Amino acid sequence: MKTIHKLVLKSYLGPMILTFFIVMFVLMMNIVWRYIDELVGKGLSAGIIIELMTYFMANMLPLGLPLAVLLAAIMTMGNLGENYELLAMKSAGMSLVQIAKPLIILIAFISIGSFFVGNNLVPFANKKVYSILYDIRQQNQNLEFQDGLFFNGIPDMSIRVGKQDPKTNLLTEVLIYDNRSANGNMNTIVADSGYIRLSDDKRFLLVTLFNGETYEQTRTTANNSQWFTKSALRHHIFERQDQIIPMEGFSMGRTDENQFSNSQTKNVNQLQGDIDSLEMLVSTVTNRSYEPLLKERIFAEDHSVLDLPDSLKTDRTGFGDLMVLDSLPALSLRDKERIWDQARASAKNSRNLFSFDESNAKEALNQLYRSKVEWHKKLSLPVSIMIFFLIGAPLGAIIRKGGLGMPVVVSVLFFVVYYIISLSGEKAAKEGNWESVYGMWLSTFVLTPIAIYLTYKATNDSTLLDTDWYAGRIKMLQERIQPWVAKLQSKLKIKRKK
Protein backbone atom coordinates (compact mmCIF):
# COMPACT_ATOMS: atom_id res chain seq x y z
CA MET A 1 0.00 0.00 0.00
CA LYS A 2 1.27 3.43 -0.93
CA THR A 3 2.08 6.00 1.74
CA ILE A 4 -0.58 8.33 0.37
CA HIS A 5 -3.18 5.58 0.60
CA LYS A 6 -2.17 4.92 4.21
CA LEU A 7 -2.58 8.64 4.92
CA VAL A 8 -6.04 8.74 3.36
CA LEU A 9 -7.13 5.57 5.11
CA LYS A 10 -5.86 6.82 8.47
CA SER A 11 -7.59 10.14 7.92
CA TYR A 12 -10.89 8.34 7.29
CA LEU A 13 -10.90 5.75 10.08
CA GLY A 14 -10.81 8.32 12.89
CA PRO A 15 -13.85 10.35 11.70
CA MET A 16 -15.65 7.12 10.78
CA ILE A 17 -15.41 5.71 14.29
CA LEU A 18 -16.25 9.08 15.85
CA THR A 19 -19.29 9.77 13.67
CA PHE A 20 -20.53 6.19 14.05
CA PHE A 21 -20.69 6.47 17.83
CA ILE A 22 -22.24 9.95 17.64
CA VAL A 23 -24.94 8.75 15.25
CA MET A 24 -25.64 5.65 17.34
CA PHE A 25 -25.85 7.76 20.48
CA VAL A 26 -28.43 10.06 18.89
CA LEU A 27 -30.49 7.10 17.65
CA MET A 28 -30.29 5.40 21.04
CA MET A 29 -31.55 8.55 22.78
CA ASN A 30 -34.59 8.39 20.53
CA ILE A 31 -35.16 4.77 21.56
CA VAL A 32 -34.75 5.60 25.26
CA TRP A 33 -37.33 8.40 25.09
CA ARG A 34 -39.72 6.12 23.22
CA TYR A 35 -39.61 3.34 25.82
CA ILE A 36 -38.86 5.36 28.95
CA ASP A 37 -42.36 4.80 30.37
CA GLU A 38 -42.00 1.02 30.16
CA LEU A 39 -38.55 0.92 31.78
CA VAL A 40 -39.13 3.24 34.73
CA GLY A 41 -40.69 1.94 37.94
CA LYS A 42 -40.14 -1.77 37.23
CA GLY A 43 -37.03 -2.19 39.39
CA LEU A 44 -35.04 -3.52 36.42
CA SER A 45 -31.45 -4.49 37.03
CA ALA A 46 -28.60 -2.79 35.21
CA GLY A 47 -27.86 -6.02 33.36
CA ILE A 48 -31.36 -6.17 31.82
CA ILE A 49 -31.21 -2.53 30.72
CA ILE A 50 -27.73 -2.92 29.22
CA GLU A 51 -28.83 -6.08 27.40
CA LEU A 52 -31.90 -4.33 26.01
CA MET A 53 -29.89 -1.29 24.89
CA THR A 54 -27.33 -3.57 23.21
CA TYR A 55 -30.01 -5.27 21.15
CA PHE A 56 -31.55 -1.91 20.32
CA MET A 57 -28.14 -0.72 19.11
CA ALA A 58 -27.81 -3.77 16.87
CA ASN A 59 -31.26 -3.00 15.51
CA MET A 60 -30.22 0.58 14.72
CA LEU A 61 -27.12 -0.41 12.73
CA PRO A 62 -28.86 -0.41 9.31
CA LEU A 63 -30.00 3.16 9.96
CA GLY A 64 -26.79 4.47 11.52
CA LEU A 65 -24.20 3.02 9.13
CA PRO A 66 -25.19 5.00 6.00
CA LEU A 67 -25.25 8.31 7.89
CA ALA A 68 -21.90 7.59 9.58
CA VAL A 69 -20.29 6.69 6.23
CA LEU A 70 -21.65 9.86 4.60
CA LEU A 71 -20.55 12.18 7.41
CA ALA A 72 -17.09 10.59 7.72
CA ALA A 73 -16.52 10.81 3.94
CA ILE A 74 -17.40 14.52 3.86
CA MET A 75 -15.21 15.25 6.91
CA THR A 76 -12.22 13.31 5.57
CA MET A 77 -12.17 14.76 2.07
CA GLY A 78 -13.06 18.19 3.46
CA ASN A 79 -10.08 18.09 5.84
CA LEU A 80 -7.75 16.99 3.05
CA GLY A 81 -9.04 19.78 0.83
CA GLU A 82 -8.89 22.43 3.56
CA ASN A 83 -5.25 21.57 4.35
CA TYR A 84 -4.33 21.55 0.63
CA GLU A 85 -3.32 17.88 0.89
CA LEU A 86 -5.87 16.96 -1.72
CA LEU A 87 -4.49 19.65 -4.05
CA ALA A 88 -0.94 18.32 -3.54
CA MET A 89 -2.04 14.78 -4.44
CA LYS A 90 -3.77 16.00 -7.59
CA SER A 91 -0.66 18.01 -8.51
CA ALA A 92 1.31 14.76 -8.30
CA GLY A 93 -0.90 13.34 -11.06
CA MET A 94 -3.40 11.38 -8.95
CA SER A 95 -7.09 11.57 -9.76
CA LEU A 96 -9.80 11.66 -7.14
CA VAL A 97 -10.65 8.02 -7.82
CA GLN A 98 -7.02 6.98 -7.26
CA ILE A 99 -6.86 9.00 -4.05
CA ALA A 100 -10.06 7.44 -2.71
CA LYS A 101 -9.18 3.90 -3.87
CA PRO A 102 -8.42 2.53 -0.36
CA LEU A 103 -11.60 4.12 0.96
CA ILE A 104 -13.65 2.54 -1.83
CA ILE A 105 -12.24 -0.88 -0.95
CA LEU A 106 -12.94 -0.29 2.75
CA ILE A 107 -16.52 0.81 2.08
CA ALA A 108 -17.01 -2.25 -0.15
CA PHE A 109 -16.06 -4.51 2.78
CA ILE A 110 -18.32 -2.50 5.11
CA SER A 111 -21.19 -2.85 2.64
CA ILE A 112 -20.73 -6.61 2.41
CA GLY A 113 -20.52 -6.84 6.19
CA SER A 114 -23.68 -4.73 6.54
CA PHE A 115 -25.60 -7.34 4.55
CA PHE A 116 -24.68 -10.04 7.06
CA VAL A 117 -25.50 -7.66 9.89
CA GLY A 118 -28.95 -6.96 8.46
CA ASN A 119 -29.52 -10.59 7.51
CA ASN A 120 -28.34 -12.35 10.67
CA LEU A 121 -27.68 -9.95 13.55
CA VAL A 122 -30.71 -7.67 13.19
CA PRO A 123 -33.34 -10.49 13.12
CA PHE A 124 -31.72 -12.06 16.19
CA ALA A 125 -31.68 -8.69 17.97
CA ASN A 126 -35.34 -8.09 17.07
CA LYS A 127 -36.32 -11.41 18.62
CA LYS A 128 -34.47 -10.52 21.81
CA VAL A 129 -36.00 -7.03 21.92
CA TYR A 130 -39.55 -8.38 21.51
CA SER A 131 -38.93 -11.01 24.17
CA ILE A 132 -37.45 -8.61 26.74
CA LEU A 133 -40.10 -5.93 26.17
CA TYR A 134 -42.83 -8.55 26.54
CA ASP A 135 -41.34 -9.74 29.83
CA ILE A 136 -41.02 -6.15 31.08
CA ARG A 137 -44.65 -5.42 30.21
CA GLN A 138 -45.78 -8.56 31.99
CA GLN A 139 -43.85 -7.60 35.10
CA ASN A 140 -45.63 -5.61 37.78
CA GLN A 141 -44.29 -2.29 38.93
CA ASN A 142 -41.99 -2.04 41.90
CA LEU A 143 -43.40 -1.24 45.33
CA GLU A 144 -43.79 2.52 45.43
CA PHE A 145 -45.94 3.86 48.25
CA GLN A 146 -47.24 7.40 48.21
CA ASP A 147 -48.33 9.19 51.34
CA GLY A 148 -52.07 8.93 51.94
CA LEU A 149 -52.79 6.90 48.77
CA PHE A 150 -53.69 3.25 48.28
CA PHE A 151 -51.25 1.00 46.45
CA ASN A 152 -53.16 -1.61 44.39
CA GLY A 153 -50.26 -3.19 42.52
CA ILE A 154 -50.63 -6.48 44.45
CA PRO A 155 -53.57 -8.71 43.44
CA ASP A 156 -56.37 -8.87 46.06
CA MET A 157 -54.54 -6.48 48.37
CA SER A 158 -54.73 -2.74 49.00
CA ILE A 159 -52.13 -0.96 51.12
CA ARG A 160 -52.25 2.62 52.35
CA VAL A 161 -49.53 4.37 54.33
CA GLY A 162 -49.75 7.72 56.03
CA LYS A 163 -46.10 8.62 55.56
CA GLN A 164 -42.89 6.97 54.41
CA ASP A 165 -39.46 7.93 55.66
CA PRO A 166 -37.25 8.26 52.54
CA LYS A 167 -34.09 7.36 54.49
CA THR A 168 -35.17 4.41 56.62
CA ASN A 169 -38.23 3.37 54.52
CA LEU A 170 -40.25 3.20 57.75
CA LEU A 171 -44.00 3.31 57.09
CA THR A 172 -46.42 4.91 59.54
CA GLU A 173 -50.21 4.63 59.82
CA VAL A 174 -50.35 1.42 57.80
CA LEU A 175 -53.71 0.09 56.59
CA ILE A 176 -53.92 -3.23 54.71
CA TYR A 177 -56.99 -4.84 53.13
CA ASP A 178 -56.24 -8.49 52.39
CA ASN A 179 -58.75 -10.45 50.25
CA ARG A 180 -56.42 -13.24 49.11
CA SER A 181 -58.23 -16.00 50.99
CA ALA A 182 -59.82 -18.56 48.69
CA ASN A 183 -62.90 -18.99 50.89
CA GLY A 184 -63.72 -15.30 50.77
CA ASN A 185 -62.52 -14.29 54.24
CA MET A 186 -61.44 -10.66 54.56
CA ASN A 187 -58.59 -9.41 56.75
CA THR A 188 -58.03 -5.82 57.74
CA ILE A 189 -54.76 -4.85 59.43
CA VAL A 190 -54.12 -1.51 61.09
CA ALA A 191 -50.64 -0.75 62.46
CA ASP A 192 -48.79 2.26 63.80
CA SER A 193 -45.64 1.55 61.76
CA GLY A 194 -43.80 -1.14 59.88
CA TYR A 195 -41.75 -2.19 56.89
CA ILE A 196 -43.04 -3.65 53.62
CA ARG A 197 -40.59 -4.69 50.94
CA LEU A 198 -39.94 -7.34 48.31
CA SER A 199 -37.38 -10.08 48.77
CA ASP A 200 -34.20 -9.94 46.75
CA ASP A 201 -35.54 -12.42 44.20
CA LYS A 202 -38.91 -10.55 44.15
CA ARG A 203 -40.81 -13.76 44.84
CA PHE A 204 -42.05 -12.85 48.33
CA LEU A 205 -43.49 -9.81 50.07
CA LEU A 206 -41.85 -9.30 53.45
CA VAL A 207 -44.19 -7.50 55.90
CA THR A 208 -43.14 -6.44 59.39
CA LEU A 209 -45.69 -4.42 61.39
CA PHE A 210 -45.55 -2.91 64.90
CA ASN A 211 -48.29 -2.08 67.41
CA GLY A 212 -51.40 -2.93 65.43
CA GLU A 213 -54.69 -4.78 65.26
CA THR A 214 -56.04 -7.46 62.97
CA TYR A 215 -59.71 -7.83 62.06
CA GLU A 216 -60.65 -11.10 60.37
CA GLN A 217 -64.18 -11.55 59.06
CA THR A 218 -64.86 -15.23 58.34
CA ARG A 219 -67.76 -17.09 56.77
CA THR A 220 -69.94 -19.50 58.68
CA THR A 221 -72.02 -20.63 55.70
CA ALA A 222 -71.41 -21.58 52.09
CA ASN A 223 -74.34 -19.55 50.85
CA ASN A 224 -72.97 -16.39 49.25
CA SER A 225 -76.28 -14.58 49.63
CA GLN A 226 -76.01 -14.85 53.45
CA TRP A 227 -72.37 -13.84 53.72
CA PHE A 228 -72.93 -10.64 55.67
CA THR A 229 -75.57 -12.11 57.99
CA LYS A 230 -73.82 -15.45 58.53
CA SER A 231 -70.26 -14.38 59.38
CA ALA A 232 -67.97 -14.06 62.39
CA LEU A 233 -65.48 -11.31 63.31
CA ARG A 234 -62.17 -12.02 65.00
CA HIS A 235 -60.03 -9.34 66.61
CA HIS A 236 -56.34 -9.67 67.42
CA ILE A 237 -53.91 -7.16 68.93
CA PHE A 238 -50.18 -7.50 68.27
CA GLU A 239 -46.95 -5.73 69.11
CA ARG A 240 -45.07 -7.20 66.17
CA GLN A 241 -46.31 -9.20 63.21
CA ASP A 242 -44.19 -10.79 60.48
CA GLN A 243 -45.62 -12.15 57.24
CA ILE A 244 -44.03 -13.73 54.21
CA ILE A 245 -46.49 -13.51 51.30
CA PRO A 246 -45.76 -15.30 47.99
CA MET A 247 -45.79 -12.87 45.08
CA GLU A 248 -46.12 -13.34 41.34
CA GLY A 249 -45.40 -10.84 38.59
CA PHE A 250 -42.73 -8.78 40.35
CA SER A 251 -39.85 -11.03 39.31
CA MET A 252 -39.03 -10.78 35.63
CA GLY A 253 -39.39 -14.05 33.73
CA ARG A 254 -37.62 -14.79 30.46
CA THR A 255 -39.77 -15.87 27.53
CA ASP A 256 -38.38 -17.91 24.67
CA GLU A 257 -37.61 -15.45 21.88
CA ASN A 258 -38.56 -18.02 19.22
CA GLN A 259 -42.20 -17.38 20.11
CA PHE A 260 -41.92 -13.93 18.52
CA SER A 261 -41.78 -14.47 14.80
CA ASN A 262 -42.59 -11.94 12.09
CA SER A 263 -40.99 -10.51 8.97
CA GLN A 264 -38.48 -8.50 11.03
CA THR A 265 -37.09 -11.57 12.79
CA LYS A 266 -36.21 -13.59 9.68
CA ASN A 267 -33.30 -13.70 7.27
CA VAL A 268 -33.41 -13.66 3.49
CA ASN A 269 -33.86 -17.42 3.07
CA GLN A 270 -36.69 -17.53 5.60
CA LEU A 271 -38.36 -14.52 4.01
CA GLN A 272 -38.12 -16.09 0.56
CA GLY A 273 -39.80 -19.22 1.88
CA ASP A 274 -42.56 -17.12 3.45
CA ILE A 275 -43.02 -15.18 0.23
CA ASP A 276 -43.48 -18.37 -1.82
CA SER A 277 -45.92 -19.81 0.74
CA LEU A 278 -47.90 -16.59 1.06
CA GLU A 279 -48.19 -16.18 -2.70
CA MET A 280 -49.66 -19.68 -2.96
CA LEU A 281 -51.98 -18.98 0.00
CA VAL A 282 -53.19 -15.70 -1.49
CA SER A 283 -53.85 -17.36 -4.83
CA THR A 284 -55.72 -20.26 -3.20
CA VAL A 285 -57.87 -18.08 -0.93
CA THR A 286 -58.65 -15.62 -3.73
CA ASN A 287 -59.69 -18.38 -6.11
CA ARG A 288 -61.79 -20.01 -3.41
CA SER A 289 -63.54 -16.70 -2.71
CA TYR A 290 -64.20 -15.36 -6.19
CA GLU A 291 -64.18 -18.36 -8.50
CA PRO A 292 -67.60 -19.66 -7.39
CA LEU A 293 -69.08 -16.24 -7.92
CA LEU A 294 -67.63 -15.95 -11.40
CA LYS A 295 -68.30 -19.59 -12.29
CA GLU A 296 -71.97 -19.38 -11.32
CA ARG A 297 -72.15 -15.91 -12.88
CA ILE A 298 -73.99 -14.58 -9.87
CA PHE A 299 -73.08 -11.00 -10.77
CA ALA A 300 -74.42 -11.25 -14.31
CA GLU A 301 -77.32 -8.87 -14.69
CA ASP A 302 -77.83 -9.21 -18.42
CA HIS A 303 -80.50 -11.86 -19.03
CA SER A 304 -79.07 -12.51 -22.48
CA VAL A 305 -75.89 -13.74 -20.77
CA LEU A 306 -77.54 -15.68 -17.97
CA ASP A 307 -80.94 -17.12 -18.92
CA LEU A 308 -83.34 -17.29 -16.01
CA PRO A 309 -85.59 -20.29 -15.56
CA ASP A 310 -89.28 -19.79 -16.25
CA SER A 311 -90.11 -19.85 -12.56
CA LEU A 312 -87.85 -16.81 -11.93
CA LYS A 313 -88.79 -14.69 -14.92
CA THR A 314 -90.28 -11.34 -13.99
CA ASP A 315 -93.23 -9.40 -15.09
CA ARG A 316 -92.86 -5.67 -14.46
CA THR A 317 -96.13 -4.66 -16.08
CA GLY A 318 -98.05 -2.38 -13.78
CA PHE A 319 -95.74 -3.00 -10.84
CA GLY A 320 -92.85 -0.60 -11.52
CA ASP A 321 -89.66 -2.16 -10.17
CA LEU A 322 -91.45 -4.96 -8.30
CA MET A 323 -90.49 -8.38 -9.55
CA VAL A 324 -93.52 -10.66 -9.58
CA LEU A 325 -93.01 -14.35 -10.15
CA ASP A 326 -95.12 -15.64 -13.03
CA SER A 327 -95.40 -19.18 -11.78
CA LEU A 328 -94.97 -20.47 -8.26
CA PRO A 329 -95.48 -24.02 -7.13
CA ALA A 330 -98.70 -24.62 -5.40
CA LEU A 331 -97.27 -24.70 -1.89
CA SER A 332 -98.85 -23.96 1.41
CA LEU A 333 -97.98 -20.81 3.31
CA ARG A 334 -96.00 -22.77 5.87
CA ASP A 335 -93.92 -24.49 3.14
CA LYS A 336 -93.23 -21.15 1.45
CA GLU A 337 -92.08 -19.70 4.79
CA ARG A 338 -89.83 -22.70 5.39
CA ILE A 339 -88.27 -22.40 1.92
CA TRP A 340 -87.75 -18.65 2.45
CA ASP A 341 -86.02 -19.24 5.83
CA GLN A 342 -83.74 -21.87 4.30
CA ALA A 343 -82.83 -19.59 1.40
CA ARG A 344 -82.12 -16.69 3.75
CA ALA A 345 -79.98 -18.89 6.03
CA SER A 346 -78.05 -20.21 3.02
CA ALA A 347 -77.46 -16.64 1.78
CA LYS A 348 -76.20 -15.52 5.20
CA ASN A 349 -73.94 -18.54 5.46
CA SER A 350 -72.50 -17.88 2.00
CA ARG A 351 -71.92 -14.24 2.89
CA ASN A 352 -70.13 -15.19 6.13
CA LEU A 353 -67.93 -17.70 4.32
CA PHE A 354 -67.08 -15.12 1.68
CA SER A 355 -66.24 -12.51 4.34
CA PHE A 356 -64.03 -15.02 6.17
CA ASP A 357 -62.14 -15.93 3.01
CA GLU A 358 -61.81 -12.26 2.11
CA SER A 359 -60.34 -11.38 5.53
CA ASN A 360 -57.89 -14.30 5.24
CA ALA A 361 -56.85 -13.09 1.80
CA LYS A 362 -56.29 -9.55 3.10
CA GLU A 363 -54.22 -10.78 6.06
CA ALA A 364 -52.13 -13.00 3.79
CA LEU A 365 -51.60 -10.09 1.39
CA ASN A 366 -50.53 -7.85 4.26
CA GLN A 367 -47.97 -10.42 5.44
CA LEU A 368 -46.80 -10.93 1.85
CA TYR A 369 -46.19 -7.21 1.33
CA ARG A 370 -44.27 -6.94 4.62
CA SER A 371 -42.13 -9.96 3.82
CA LYS A 372 -41.22 -8.55 0.42
CA VAL A 373 -40.38 -5.18 1.97
CA GLU A 374 -38.02 -6.78 4.50
CA TRP A 375 -36.44 -8.92 1.77
CA HIS A 376 -35.62 -5.90 -0.38
CA LYS A 377 -34.57 -3.84 2.66
CA LYS A 378 -31.78 -6.31 3.46
CA LEU A 379 -30.45 -6.09 -0.10
CA SER A 380 -30.76 -2.31 -0.42
CA LEU A 381 -28.70 -1.55 2.72
CA PRO A 382 -25.24 -2.38 1.22
CA VAL A 383 -26.07 -0.41 -1.92
CA SER A 384 -27.19 2.63 0.09
CA ILE A 385 -23.93 2.62 2.07
CA MET A 386 -21.87 2.68 -1.14
CA ILE A 387 -24.06 5.44 -2.63
CA PHE A 388 -23.71 7.58 0.50
CA PHE A 389 -19.95 7.26 0.28
CA LEU A 390 -20.00 8.22 -3.41
CA ILE A 391 -22.01 11.29 -2.40
CA GLY A 392 -19.91 12.20 0.65
CA ALA A 393 -16.43 11.88 -0.82
CA PRO A 394 -17.04 14.18 -3.84
CA LEU A 395 -18.94 16.63 -1.65
CA GLY A 396 -16.02 16.84 0.77
CA ALA A 397 -13.60 17.41 -2.11
CA ILE A 398 -15.83 20.19 -3.47
CA ILE A 399 -16.69 21.88 -0.16
CA ARG A 400 -13.11 21.69 1.22
CA LYS A 401 -14.33 22.24 4.75
CA GLY A 402 -13.53 19.82 7.57
CA GLY A 403 -14.71 19.57 11.15
CA LEU A 404 -18.29 19.11 12.30
CA GLY A 405 -19.79 22.31 10.88
CA MET A 406 -20.62 22.25 7.20
CA PRO A 407 -20.23 18.44 6.87
CA VAL A 408 -22.90 17.84 9.52
CA VAL A 409 -25.34 20.23 7.84
CA VAL A 410 -24.88 18.68 4.39
CA SER A 411 -24.97 15.11 5.76
CA VAL A 412 -28.16 15.67 7.70
CA LEU A 413 -29.77 17.30 4.66
CA PHE A 414 -29.01 14.35 2.39
CA PHE A 415 -29.95 11.83 5.06
CA VAL A 416 -33.30 13.52 5.71
CA VAL A 417 -34.07 13.38 1.97
CA TYR A 418 -33.04 9.72 1.88
CA TYR A 419 -35.08 8.91 5.01
CA ILE A 420 -38.24 10.63 3.76
CA ILE A 421 -38.04 8.93 0.37
CA SER A 422 -37.38 5.55 2.00
CA LEU A 423 -40.29 5.87 4.42
CA SER A 424 -42.65 6.98 1.66
CA GLY A 425 -41.65 4.09 -0.59
CA GLU A 426 -41.80 1.57 2.27
CA LYS A 427 -45.28 2.73 3.28
CA ALA A 428 -46.55 2.50 -0.30
CA ALA A 429 -45.03 -0.98 -0.66
CA LYS A 430 -46.54 -2.25 2.62
CA GLU A 431 -49.96 -0.97 1.60
CA GLY A 432 -49.69 -2.67 -1.79
CA ASN A 433 -49.90 0.56 -3.78
CA TRP A 434 -46.44 -0.03 -5.27
CA GLU A 435 -44.39 -3.06 -6.03
CA SER A 436 -41.88 -3.76 -3.26
CA VAL A 437 -38.93 -3.42 -5.62
CA TYR A 438 -40.01 0.13 -6.52
CA GLY A 439 -40.84 1.22 -2.99
CA MET A 440 -37.65 -0.06 -1.34
CA TRP A 441 -35.27 0.96 -4.13
CA LEU A 442 -36.82 4.37 -4.76
CA SER A 443 -34.23 6.21 -2.64
CA THR A 444 -31.46 4.38 -4.50
CA PHE A 445 -32.91 5.42 -7.87
CA VAL A 446 -33.07 9.04 -6.70
CA LEU A 447 -29.63 9.30 -5.08
CA THR A 448 -27.61 7.35 -7.66
CA PRO A 449 -27.74 10.13 -10.34
CA ILE A 450 -26.75 12.65 -7.64
CA ALA A 451 -23.75 10.51 -6.68
CA ILE A 452 -22.67 10.16 -10.31
CA TYR A 453 -23.06 13.90 -10.92
CA LEU A 454 -21.07 14.88 -7.81
CA THR A 455 -18.33 12.38 -8.62
CA TYR A 456 -18.04 13.81 -12.13
CA LYS A 457 -17.87 17.38 -10.82
CA ALA A 458 -15.30 16.54 -8.15
CA THR A 459 -13.13 14.61 -10.60
CA ASN A 460 -13.07 17.64 -12.92
CA ASP A 461 -12.28 20.09 -10.06
CA SER A 462 -15.70 21.68 -10.20
CA THR A 463 -16.43 24.81 -8.21
CA LEU A 464 -19.98 23.71 -7.61
CA LEU A 465 -20.03 24.71 -3.92
CA ASP A 466 -17.16 27.20 -3.83
CA THR A 467 -18.56 30.43 -2.37
CA ASP A 468 -15.61 32.47 -3.70
CA TRP A 469 -16.40 31.28 -7.22
CA TYR A 470 -20.03 32.33 -6.87
CA ALA A 471 -18.99 35.70 -5.40
CA GLY A 472 -16.66 36.31 -8.36
CA ARG A 473 -19.36 35.39 -10.85
CA ILE A 474 -21.84 37.72 -9.17
CA LYS A 475 -19.25 40.53 -9.23
CA MET A 476 -18.58 39.98 -12.95
CA LEU A 477 -22.32 40.00 -13.63
CA GLN A 478 -22.68 43.30 -11.75
CA GLU A 479 -19.84 44.85 -13.74
CA ARG A 480 -21.50 43.86 -17.01
CA ILE A 481 -24.91 45.10 -15.97
CA GLN A 482 -23.67 48.40 -14.51
CA PRO A 483 -23.15 50.20 -17.92
CA TRP A 484 -26.67 49.19 -18.99
CA VAL A 485 -28.09 50.48 -15.72
CA ALA A 486 -26.19 53.79 -16.13
CA LYS A 487 -27.52 54.28 -19.67
CA LEU A 488 -31.07 53.52 -18.54
CA GLN A 489 -30.78 56.02 -15.67
CA SER A 490 -29.48 58.74 -18.01
CA LYS A 491 -32.38 58.18 -20.43
CA LEU A 492 -34.87 58.44 -17.58
CA LYS A 493 -33.32 61.75 -16.47
CA ILE A 494 -33.56 63.15 -20.00
CA LYS A 495 -37.25 62.20 -20.25
CA ARG A 496 -37.99 63.84 -16.91
CA LYS A 497 -36.34 67.09 -18.01
CA LYS A 498 -38.43 67.15 -21.19
Give a description of the structure.
The protein is of the alpha+beta class and 498 residues long. The protein has three domains: 3-139 and 376-467, no CATH class; 150-246, no CATH class; 264-372, no CATH class. It has ten helices and nine strands. Strands 1, 2, 3, 4, 5, 6 and 7 form a seven-stranded antiparallel beta sheet that branches. The protein has a two-stranded antiparallel sheet with strand order 8-9. The longest helix has 67 residues, at 333-399. The N and C termini lie far apart (80 Å). The model is unreliable at 296-309 and 311-328 (pLDDT under 50).
In short:
It is built from ten helices and nine strands.
Give the structural class. Answer: alpha+beta
Provide the number of structural domains.
Answer: 3
- Termini separation comes to 80 Å
SSE pattern: HHHHHEEEEEEEHEEHHHH
> What is the helix fraction of residues, given as a range?
55-70%
Query: In this structure, how is the largest beta sheet organized?
Result: 7 strands, antiparallel
The portion of residues forming beta strands comes to 5-15%
Query: Which descriptor suits the 3D outline?
Result: extended
Count up the helices. 10
- Ranges with pLDDT <50 over ≥5 residues? 296-309, 311-328
